[in-house]
Specification:
With 321 residues, this protein is of the alpha/beta class. It folds into two domains: 17-144, Rossmann fold (3-Layer(aba) Sandwich), CATH 3.40.50.1980; 149-318, 3-Layer(aba) Sandwich (Rossmann fold). It has 14 helices and 14 strands. The protein has helices at residues 38-46, 64-67, 81-86, 102-110, 123-135, 146-171, 193-200, 220-225, 244-248, 258-261, 270-273, 279-291, 294-299, 304-307; strands at residues 17-18, 33-35, 53-56, 91-95, 115-118, 175-179, 181-182, 185-188, 204-205, 214-217, 229-232, 265-267, 310-311, 317-318. A five-stranded mixed sheet has the order 1-5-4-2-3, sandwiched between helices. A four-stranded parallel sheet has the order 9-6-11-12. The protein has a three-stranded antiparallel sheet with strand order 7-8-10. The longest helix is centred in the middle third of the chain and has 26 residues, at 146-171. The protein is globular, with a radius of gyration of 20 Å. The chain starts with 16 loop residues before the first strand and ends with a strand. The relative contact order is 0.11.
């Protein structure tokens, strides 16, 4: 059994590649990769390895031209490992970013397949995952230099962090409420990447002081925090199905919240904020453009809706839905 260490996250085993063949035992263009979650598919794409994908999970949807015709292997918690095995992959890219996926990882191991297991919590983990994924495939198929990809992402992040510092010094940090689910409230906590994204954007996640990856609340702590911005990214729910009108009509005391009173309520794309992939940097740039419109011209960013469509508090779309 060949063992290669990968990202050392809080829930990642110290040894998370297993199997009988180093780097999958294939050195040519017939290399075969399977991805078992959307963020992994996006990491593979960032490294230019998408041509070697032979199967993906049911939720991988980006980029469309890469995944639309690939075999689907089931949703994250119910991946059909027998179907994975039939594809004869040289490398399976699994994840622990979704609670409960441990049994999928175990099943892939029991099937004797080579796999790398990722569980990033923040941008630095994502950079490490890019390096480790790149090292896990044969040099003959490596298309983009992982360090160059990482450097480009870091440069984009650093420009934003440097720019927002002056905003924070002058105006303080606006408070963001990220709503993953409304009842009961589920929201990212201190260890989730959205807390880091909020800070880099010159803002603050209202649950940044709560330990762990997520927090469940009856809504009372949200109301006590009185967030300035309400950013809904309901897990597993398409933007067009999130009921903006019901959010805006929750009644007192929700109606007294600054975010609702000022109409600073937005339904954002789950793809830019709920997946630990390089696209989080696109999400960061989108949020900065929403919070600080002058960032678009001063930093040369795209208009926020160009990264992905946005629904506003009045239900209107910014950008094509």
């Amino acid at each position: 059994m060949e063992i290669v260490p990968v990202t050392q996250g809080k829930t990642v085993p110290e040894k998370t590649i297993s199997g009988s063949m180093k780097k999958g035992g294939c050195n040519g263009m017939d290399y075969r990769i399977v991805s078992l979650c959307p963020s992994n598919t996006e990491l593979i794409y960032a490294l230019g390895l998408e041509q070697f994908l032979v199967g993906v999970d049911n939720y991988s949807d980006f980029p469309t031209h890469v995944v639309q015709d690939l075999p689907r292997l089931g949703p994250d918690l119910h991946v059909d490992v027998e179907a994975v095995t039939r594809l004869e992959p040289h490398l399976v890219v699994s994840s622990l970013s979704v609670p409960g996926m441990e049994h999928v990882v175990d099943s892939v191991n029991q099937a004797g397949l080579n796999q790398i297991v990722l569980a990033p919590h923040n941008l630095e983990d994502i950079y490490s995952d890019l390096r480790n994924l790149d090292r896990s495939v044969p040099e003959s198929i490596q298309h983009r230099d992982a360090n160059a990809v990482i450097a480009s992402l870091q440069q984009r992040v650093q420009r934003i962090e440097d720019w927002t510092k002056s905003k924070v010094e002058r105006f303080g940090r606006p408070k963001l409420y990220w709503e993953w689910w409304p009842n009961p409230v589920f929201s990212p906590a201190a260890d989730n990447w959205l807390t880091e994204i909020s800070r880099l954007a010159g803002a603050e996640n209202i649950f940044a002081d709560v330990d762990g990856d997520s927090v469940q609340d009856d809504g009372s702590r949200v109301l006590e925090s009185n967030p300035d911005w309400f950013l809904a990214v309901w897990t597993g729910v398409p933007q067009h199905k999130v009921p903006v009108k019901k959010i805006m009509e929750r009644g007192e005391p929700w109606s007294d919240m600054t975010a609702l009173r000022e109409g600073q309520v937005y339904i954002l794309s789950e793809g830019l904020f709920c997946r630990p992939s390089p696209r989080l940097v696109d999400g960061l740039e989108q949020v900065v453009g929403l919070l600080y419109p002058d960032a678009v011209s001063q930093l040369g960013l795209m208009q926020p809706e160009k990264y992905s469509s946005i629904r506003a508090a009045n239900g209107n779309w910014l950008g094509k839905p």
